[in-house]
Structures are given as C-alpha cells and as structure tokens.
C-alpha cells in the first residue's frame, strides 16, 4: 500500500517510483517471455517480405500486422527491433502481472474508482542501438509544434489521473537510455515541448533522471514532459507498460481505439486473469483474490 506522502508526491510531480515491489519469480517469468519474443522478432525480420504488409506510421514505427512487433528503419536500411504491442495476448504472464495485488492496490489509491488494465506493451532498448525518444507528452496531450504528429493536445489536464505503470526488467539509468522527466508538468495540459527544446536544447530546465532497478515500478502520468537518450551501453533496458484506465478516461481520450472491449468482455478477460494469477501463485507467494471485476472495472472486494 502507498503512504499518503507517496500519493501526494504522485499528484504533485506526475510520477512515483515504487522500489522493489515486483517479486523475483514475476521478474524471472517476464524476462523469459521477453527473451522469447525478442528472439522471435529478430529472427522474423530477417525473412524476405516479412514487413511488406506492415503498418508504417513513420520510419520509427513499423508494426507487423499479426505479430505486433514494432521496428524502426535505421539510416543504413536495416531494421532495429524495439517494441511489442498487444502484449496481453503474447504471453499469459503479462496479463497475470497486470492483476498483481500490489499493483492493483496502489493504482486504486491513485484513481479511487474502478479501472481496467489496458495498453500492455514491452519496450526494448537493445545494446548500442536503442533509439533516443524526443521530449514529449503522451496522447492525448501529445503535440509537436514542429509537426510529425496529427494530435493537437488539449489545454487542460483531465481531473482523473491518467498514468502508465512501468515495470523494469533491467536497470534503467543515464548510460542505457533511461527516462528523464520534468516534475509537475502534468498539471498544465499540453505544453509546446518543441519550443522548450528550441530554446534550451536537450537539457531542459528542471529535468530529472528517473533511475530504476529490476523489480521497481513507476506510475508515470501521460501528461508529464519526458524523454530519453539513446542507449550507448552494452546493457539492454526492457520495460513492461500497463495502462490502468477508468471508463471515464477511455471515453474522454481513447474512445477511437480499435480494440476496445465491452464491459462483459473485460469482466470475462480480467476475471480469468485474476483466477490464473491466483492459481499460478499458489504454493509460491499466495495472493488472495482481493479484487473483483464489475461492469465498471476492477475494484477491491471490500470497496
């Protein structure tokens, strides 16, 4: 459970690092799944024609329509692997992690209302080639005055907290492309990040490094200004992202997502994930079923 000071810190700063809350068994299982997906993605991209039908948003987002592996095209024409989308259907461990009791409890303390896990994806920064990510805010606040994205952002921040939950499988630091953020910028709606970069360069005023170790997790508001440098080290950095969303936030910002589930579908999917997690942890580190699915989302059984 979060302390009142931790909850306050998140609301004031737009992020909260939670140290060592992911058990080793969970880490080991996620790493094994991430290894398998990486090996498959790197092998398949070598096949002639594999990306012929890919969704090419730009050279940094080339997504296979079936496997949902995401690549970027490097200057030499080769493809670098950096992301897996629709992760809950890629391996059962990720859906089971999304309903881990500690994560659900902590998310409930921030949201104070029912929510569904959404947006499961796994981001890789591979050694020596993990690309930099320019300073930005996430959708629906994303706006670059220099162009390059159609989203126009919004002038105010929605009152219901909208954040991702970032689970780190390896250390994330200054050397391997770790995240930087500017505390408090989530309270301002959309800001012109490109204007800030044009004035100050990459080292924006107030930016702080968010350095994490394996087993740490972080709540990260989508409106906080953040970015990361390229990975110039021999170590990889892999991060599993969960997006706990209320129905109100989905209606406000993501109603056009193509794979939204009905209340009945969510109830069945996440009710099964809770049962699977409970069965998996039996005899290891037992987690009682203290959350339940309702038509509005997951909520504590005593809430």
Entry summary:
With 303 residues, the chain is α+β, with helices and mostly antiparallel strands. It has seven helices and 15 strands. The strands form three sheets. A nine-stranded antiparallel sheet has the order 1-11-8-13-6-5-4-3-2. The chain has a four-stranded antiparallel sheet with strand order 7-12-9-10. Strands 14-15 form a two-stranded antiparallel sheet.
Structural class: alpha+beta
How widely separated are the two ends? 15 Å
Instruction: Give the overall shape.
Output: globular
Q: What number is the mean pLDDT?
A: 94
Let me know the number of strands: 15
Rg, Å, rounded: 19 Å
Percent of residues in beta strands: 15-25%
Low-confidence stretches: none
Number of helices: 7
* N-to-C series of helices and strands: HEHEEEEHHEEEEHEEEEHHEE
* Strand arrangement, major sheet: 1-11-8-13-6-5-4-3-2
Main beta sheet strand tally, sense and closure: 9 strands, antiparallel
Outline the fold blueprint.
Layout: H1 4-13, E1 15-18, H2 24-44, E2 55-58, E3 61-63, E4 69-73, E5 79-84, H3 92-98, H4 101-111, E6 116-125, E7 133-136, E8 163-168, E9 179-181, H5 193-200, E10 208-210, E11 217-221, E12 226-228, E13 237-245, H6 247-253, H7 263-281, E14 291-294, E15 297-300
Antiparallel strand pairs: 1-11, 2-3, 3-4, 4-5, 5-6, 6-13, 7-12, 8-11, 8-13, 9-10, 9-12, 14-15
Helix pairs in contact: 3-7
Describe the structure.
27% of the residues lie in helices and 24% in strands. The mean pLDDT is 94. The two termini are 15 Å apart. It has 303 residues and is an alpha+beta fold. The radius of gyration is 19 Å and the shape is globular. The protein has 7 helices and 15 strands. A hairpin with a 5-residue loop joins strand 4 (69-73) and strand 5 (79-84). Helix 3 crosses helix 7 (263-281). The strands form 3 sheets. The protein has a 9-stranded antiparallel beta sheet. A 4-stranded antiparallel beta sheet has the order 7-12-9-10. A two-stranded antiparallel sheet has the order 14-15. It has helices at residues 4-13, 24-44, 92-98, 101-111, 193-200, 247-253, 263-281; strands at 15-18, 55-58, 61-63, 69-73, 79-84, 116-125, 133-136, 163-168, 179-181, 208-210, 217-221, 226-228, 237-245, 291-294, 297-300.
């Amino acid at each position: 459970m979060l302390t009142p000071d931790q909850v306050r810190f998140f609301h004031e700063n737009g992020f909260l690092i939670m140290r060592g809350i992911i058990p080793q068994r969970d880490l080991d299982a996620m790493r094994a799944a991430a290894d398998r997906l990486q090996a498959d993605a790197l092998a398949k991209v070598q096949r002639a024609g594999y990306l012929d039908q890919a969704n090419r948003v730009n050279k940094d987002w080339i997504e296979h329509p079936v496997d949902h592996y995401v690549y970027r095209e490097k200057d030499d024409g080769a493809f670098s692997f950096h992301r897996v989308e629709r992760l809950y259907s890629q391996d059962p461990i990720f859906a089971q992690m999304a309903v881990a009791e500690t994560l659900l409890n902590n998310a409930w303390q921030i949201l104070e209302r029912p929510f569904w896990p959404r947006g499961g994806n796994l981001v890789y920064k591979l050694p020596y080639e993990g690309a930099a990510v320019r300073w930005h805010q996430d959708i629906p606040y994303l706006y670059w005055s220099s162009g390059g994205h159609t989203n126009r952002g919004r002038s105010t921040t929605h009152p219901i907290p909208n954040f991702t939950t970032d689970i780190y499988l390896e250390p994330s630091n200054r050397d391997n492309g770790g995240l930087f953020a500017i505390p408090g910028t989530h309270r301002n709606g959309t800001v012109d990040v490109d204007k800030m970069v044009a004035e100050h360069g990459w080292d924006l005023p107030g930016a702080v490094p968010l350095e994490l170790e394996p087993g740490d997790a972080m709540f990260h508001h989508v409106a906080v200004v953040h970015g990361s440098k390229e990975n110039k080290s021999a170590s990889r950095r892999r991060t599993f992202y969960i997006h706990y969303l209320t129905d109100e936030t989905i209606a406000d910002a993501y109603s056009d997502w193509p794979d939204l589930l009905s209340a009945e579908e969510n109830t069945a999917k996440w009710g099964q994930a809770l049962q699977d997690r409970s069965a998996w942890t039996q005899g290891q580190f037992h987690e009682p079923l203290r959350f339940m699915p309702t038509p509005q989302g997951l909520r504590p059984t005593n809430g």
